[in-house]
Specification:
alpha/beta; Rossmann fold; seven-stranded mixed beta sheet; two-stranded antiparallel ribbon; 12 helices; binds S-adenosylmethionine
Length: about 280
């Protein structure tokens, strides 16, 4: 695991409160990578990532899921529509909670998806209450990742699935690559990035059985080529400059993450792990 001790939780919250409109402008309602098979549009690639993970987790009609770090609620809203499940989305950002709630009402699914503003590291849910714990690109922001996995596993019913996509540290053996991962952590407000082995270990230690452990790096990297290009061709940097230094820093780090994927310093990982049924 590679740590970046300067990141603070209040800064993460502030970042999502301020930057959510930028994400929406640049990338749409999903704040996660696209998963490409061929020449899909970014929107199709984003939905493809969501659908692929949902299929691996086996999300089906009537199931309860909790979406940790739900952003603008797009994954939860999509899944309640496409899979007929129920979702509780959790975000540390009050602005995102309001945005997601409004979107769910607007799209007519407010009875099946609700949103809560809470810190996932303090969230209390009843033991064995969830069929699925879903978290796409949020665990990077957590300070005590092993503790989160232990608590999240306790929320799962026997047979329930944990579905995770995460930015991973990979080869940080040379200083230049370690610096790339550090710069990504600093620019995107991640107190640490775990390796694929770290994630597998945390899930295993939480009593879960790993069913899928996939490296999607080459299939998601195009995300940053497109975003960096959109920043160059739009006035979004000027807008970010008006908002403040942190927002500009985050736009400037789009090339850093692209280079970190290309150099092998970082990976993009997908994990599905299941809680064993009682014997
Ligand atoms: C990169 S965005 C991913 C959003 C969403 N999963 C998606 O795929 O569109 C990261 C999300 O994690 C949330 N987050 C970060 N730290 C959190 C915490 N401690 N508790 C709850 N949410 C958190 C942010 O508010 C944001 O919604």
């Amino acid at each position: 695991m590679l740590s970046c001790p300067t990141v603070e939780k209040r800064v993460i919250r502030g970042h999502y409160d301020v930057s959510t409109p930028f994400y929406r402008l640049l990338w749409g309602p999903h704040i996660h990578h696209g998963l490409w098979e061929a020449d899909e549009t970014p929107r199709q690639a984003q939905l493809q990532l969501t659908e692929r993970l949902a299929t691996l987790a086996g999300i089906s009609v009537g199931q309860n899921m909790v979406d940790i770090g739900c952003g603008m609620g797009a994954s939860s809203i999509h899944l309640v529509k496409s899979r007929g499940c129920h979702s509780l989305g959790v975000t540390i950002s009050p602005l995102q909670k309001a945005w997601a709630t409004t979107s769910a009402r607007w799209q007519g699914v407010a009875k099946r998806v609700t949103f809560r503003c809470a810190d996932a590291e303090k969230l209390e849910l009843p033991v064995e209450s969830q069929d699925v714990v879903w978290s796409v690109e949020c665990t990077e922001h957590l300070f005590d990742k092993p503790a989160f996995f232990r608590r999240a596993a306790s929320w799962l019913k026997p047979g329930g699935a944990m579905a995770i996509c995460a930015w991973l540290a990979d080869d940080t053996s040379v200083p230049e690559r370690a610096q790339q991962v550090h710069d990504v952590c600093e620019g995107f407000f991640c107190p640490s990035l775990g390796t694929a082995d770290d994630y597998a270990h945390w899930m295993d230690q939480a009593g879960l059985r790993i069913e899928a452990r996939l490296d999607w790096t080459t299939r998601v990297t195009r995300t940053w080529e497109i975003c960096a290009d959109r920043v160059r061709r739009s006035r979004v940097r000027w807008l970010a400059h008006c908002v403040g230094y942190d927002s500009v820093l985050f736009l400037d780090r789009f090339d850093t993450i692209l280079n970190a994927y290309r150099s092998g310093a970082m990976q993009y990982g997908c994990f599905v792990a299941r809680k064993p049924r009682a014997t």
